[in-house]
Amino acid sequence: MLADAHGPVLGKDQPSANLSLLYLAGYLRKYAPAVSIRYISQKPPLEHHLRVIEETQASIYAISFTSFSAAVAFDMIRTIKRRFPHVLIVIGGPHVTTHAEQALRNSGADLCVIGEGEMTFLEIVDRYPSLPEARPTIDGIAYLQGNRLVRNRPRRLIADIDLIPTPHRGLIDQREFTGTSYSKGHPNTEVIATRGCPLRCVFCANPVYRIDGGPLFRARSPQSIAQEVEDLYRMGYREIYFHSDELNVRLGWAIELCKTLTALGHRDLFFQCNMRVVPMNEELAHWMARANFWLVRVGIESANMRVLRGIRKRMSLEKIERACELWSRAGIRVFAFLMMFNAWEEDGRLENETPGEVRNTRRYIYRLWLKRRIHYASWQIAVPVPGAELHDLMVKHRKIDPSYLPDHDWRPDEHFNNLTTRAFRSTYRSALRQEALMALLGGNVEWRNWRRIANNARMMLLGPGLRSRTEAPPLQSPGGQRCALMASTTPGQITMTDSQPHDDSGVSIRESGAIQSHTTT
What we know:
Layout: E1 2-4, H1 19-31, E2 36-37, E3 39-40, H2 46-56, E4 60-65, H3 70-83, E5 88-92, H4 94-98, H5 100-107, E6 111-113, H6 118-126, E7 141-145, E8 148-151, E9 188-191, E10 194-196, E11 204-205, E12 217-219, H7 222-235, E13 239-242, H8 251-262, E14 270-275, H9 282-291, E15 293-301, H10 305-310, H11 317-329, E16 333-340, E17 343-346, E18 349-352, H12 355-370, E19 376-381, H13 389-396, H14 421-442, H15 450-462, E20 482-487, E21 493-498, E22 508-511, E23 514-517
Parallel strand pairs: 1-3, 2-21, 4-5, 4-21, 5-6, 9-13, 11-23, 13-14, 14-15, 15-16, 16-19
Antiparallel strand pairs: 4-20, 6-7, 7-8, 10-12, 17-18, 20-21, 22-23
Helix pairs in contact: 1-6, 7-8, 8-9, 12-14, 14-15
């Protein structure tokens, strides 16, 4: 049984099944075929999870989550442990990769998977009968021995990700999901084309792929991706969101992928993806249009070079405008990820984006919108996520406690001396009005995401607290920061639960202006 956390998290319903869980299920289906697997979506309440555990007599319950849903996950785990003390509880994902001890102590979980999850979780399932004695010999886990944290040597990343079985989508009921925020084809889903990101933006948490000195970026072959796309088309899907951090890390690979997708010949199959503005050229724009990409999502974040340099975005306004023009001329719409009140360190001082700089970004986006270079936008507040440099800087400058979780309300006006509450509220509301105007006039809004839309409207009218970023990028690895599993050796039942707040991806999450990428356990 694969199960997501119950109920909306950070104001969002579940747009899509969690690819982290489905990748784990696919791996187990290939290498542990005796294990029977079921799936529970985010809709059922916690009581349903408890009932299924009891009915199936599951022996292992594993949950993977981001920092945004850590508090929810901790509560779930404590409840399950009280009810079923014999059940082995395994946790994983980006949050526990950087905060294993905190997660183990606060939740009462038995094992913590560090980093990429497929191989480690398979070994846990295989060696379940010999636990806990086998714990010291399993790479990539942490656990408490008495009151002491034990962290085993890291598990090496899977070098050739073409060898990883595709997600086990036969477990899901597509009707339970709201779909991506903007779409042309129904039903829609996501595909993970790459894992990792070679960049180090200050606000982004990407700990899963930086734990053992392995490759920061791995890409599947275009042929492997095209085969999964063809399988999804035959299953009835008519739009696919490539939810990797960015599809154009390597220009030649991206062009070859588009050519391979074009050769499939499905004109009623639409694509969207996350991209950077560099590298980008006319040839890639041409082949993207030929392949039927209709939307690209780009992390612009700010129109102020002081801010872009500070958060290490490694791009210029000139490159932003050139890339947006190339996409628009090719008939591809552009969605801009934007953040306000970014922060960084300069010469030992904590610097932050000012209300005037945020207003400048808003005016810049309006100019590009009127030129039809940008068509949609999403505004969020930069939030310190554990695993990101921004989090470490906020701890260093005593703005937050090391145990801070980003599901707590984050108000930059309470942390930056040059930002008043009045300026913050006014700036935030103006940004949300821009986002709403562009969405209404741009069309292709997925109205089944009514809860997210209503939450945004409430924030626009009543003022800001913390809200979730519903358009993620990064996503990047297949999975991880959201998953929970449960397995039994007899008759081979396994349950996975996802407690992370979902955005449109199954892999990396960009919420509240911060990004946290996932692992697959």
